[in-house]
């Protein structure tokens, strides 16, 4: 896969692409990079050949997508992340390279996990590896837009924290999702900043003792 030249400043976000489809035609399918910025950073659940920590420019991560399957229910939707176009934004995550038969298998799996069950569409983004930001890569990202029925939109961080503390789904508690994402950001180092995520974590920390006994609260954290 050809690499794009390093960008000197954030470029306008590319338009949304149609749902990802496995490559067609004869021969082995080409390699593909898939960018994860939510649960994919710790649980991709598909085979891949390589992975790199890094960031995309022009987007900010927001807990604005509702989840009625993985981290919530129809009656109590959880809150999971999507990308918001923001020319000054920067979102850290993990890019996974899939090759050959891994491409079609990964896209098939993610179509169910992210598109069918999650309400996400696909979009091409430019990914900058942490260890070689001067060699950006084109990657596929799953983004929930305001047009999908599960989109919840903005809310005060305290309200989002309250919703996260109250919800769980087939993949686990919504709080686990939040804390695992916060742990990943800490591992990325001080240059990886996400004020929205940090504010929700702080709000959860202040509310957690009110939701469950002290021993249970410590176990979750």
UniProtKB/TrEMBL annotation:
Enzyme class of the recorded protein, top EC level: lyase
Reaction equation(s) it catalyzes: glutathione = L-cysteinylglycine + 5-oxo-L-proline
CDD domains, per the entry: GGCT_like (cd06661)
Main location: cytoplasm
GO cellular component: cytosol; Golgi apparatus
Biased composition regions of type Low complexity, renumbered to the chain: 1-10
Region entry Disordered, spans: 1-28
InterPro entries: ChaC, GGCT-like, GGCT-like_sf
Source organism, top-level taxon: Eukaryota
Localization in the cell: Cytoplasm, Cytosol; Golgi apparatus, trans-Golgi network
Gene Ontology terms for molecular function: gamma-glutamylcyclotransferase activity; glutathione specific gamma-glutamylcyclotransferase activity; transferase activity
GO biological process, one term: response to unfolded protein
EC numbers on record: 4.3.2.7
Pfam families: ChaC
Family classification: Belongs to the gamma-glutamylcyclotransferase family. ChaC subfamily.
PANTHER family from the UniProt entry: CATION TRANSPORT PROTEIN CHAC-RELATED, GLUTATHIONE-SPECIFIC GAMMA-GLUTAMYLCYCLOTRANSFERASE 1
Assembly behavior: Interacts with NOTCH1 (via extracellular region).
Entry protein name: Gamma-glutamylcyclotransferase
Source organism: Pipistrellus kuhlii (Kuhl's pipistrelle)
């Amino acid at each position: 896969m050809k690499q794009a030249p390093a960008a000197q400043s954030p470029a306008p976000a590319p338009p949304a692409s149609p749902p990802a489809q496995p490559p067609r035609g004869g021969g082995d399918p080409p390699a593909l990079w898939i960018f994860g910025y939510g649960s994919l950073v710790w649980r991709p659940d598909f085979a891949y050949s390589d992975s790199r920590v890094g960031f995309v420019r022009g987007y900010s991560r927001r807990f604005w997508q509702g989840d009625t399957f993985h981290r919530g229910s129809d009656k109590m939707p959880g809150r999971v992340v999507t990308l918001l176009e923001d020319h000054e934004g920067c979102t850290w995550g993990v890019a996974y390279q899939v090759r050959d038969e891994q491409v079609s298998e990964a896209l098939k799996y993610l179509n169910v996990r992210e598109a069918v069950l999650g309400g996400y569409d696909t979009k091409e983004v430019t990914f900058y590896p942490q260890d070689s930001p001067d060699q950006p890569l084109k990657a596929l990202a799953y983004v929930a837009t305001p047009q999908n029925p599960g989109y919840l939109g903005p809310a005060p961080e305290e309200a989002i924290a309250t919703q996260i503390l109250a919800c769980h789904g087939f993949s686990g508690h919504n709080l686990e999702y939040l804390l695992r994402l916060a742990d990943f950001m800490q591992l990325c180092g001080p240059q990886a900043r996400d004020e929205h995520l940090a504010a929700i974590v702080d709000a959860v920390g202040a509310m957690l003792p009110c939701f469950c006994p002290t021993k249970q609260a410590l176990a979750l954290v």
